[in-house]
Amino acid sequence: MKFGMRKTSLKRSLKARTTGKAKRKVKKALIPGYGKKGTGWIKNPKKAAYNKVYKKTTFSFFDIFK
Question: What 3-state class would DSSP assign to 36?
Answer without folding.
Answer: coil
